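User: RNA 2',3'-cyclic phosphodiesterase. Structure?
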Amino acid sequence: MSPDTHCPRLFYALWPDAATRAALAAWQARLEGKPVRADKLHLTLAFLGQRPASELPALLDILAHTPARPMPLLFDHASHFAQLALAWAALAQPSPALLDLRAACMQRLAEQGLAPRFEHDRFTPHVTLARQAPPPAIGDFAPITWLADELVLVESLKSSGDYRILASRKLS
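Assistant: Predicted structure:
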């Protein structure tokens, strides 16, 4: 966590490996808008928002102890959030393992009294590829299979727009 940040913006995410990042970057080349930097590509499980630094130990404990195993995720098309002007990589079908991990994470947050107040019950797993983007053209996107095996707690540095991984764990 940055030393001058008393209430960092935090989120839990699945963090892709280099091969998955490269495949997602190939999709970005086919999209309009402002591409998300390859080192920032991720699948958000829970956006926590600004949290007091005093909550960090509990958030790290949740990261370390939420049960999860590596899971294959199959991205087969690009989609769009019109209100946000975001183009994103979409899953053919969210895997039960992914939905279970999200539910377990949200349950552990609730048990600790840390559940985000603005998280909706609806979860649309995706990887944002471009901002300020129009809807993607219909086309063939080579399917991407990602064996998601790294769960991270990330600080979003609002001033620079960068991300800092505060902690990570391999899923096993």
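Strands lie at 9-14, 34-35, 43-50, 71-81, 86-91, 126-131, 144-148, 150-157, 162-170. The longest helix spans residues 96-111.
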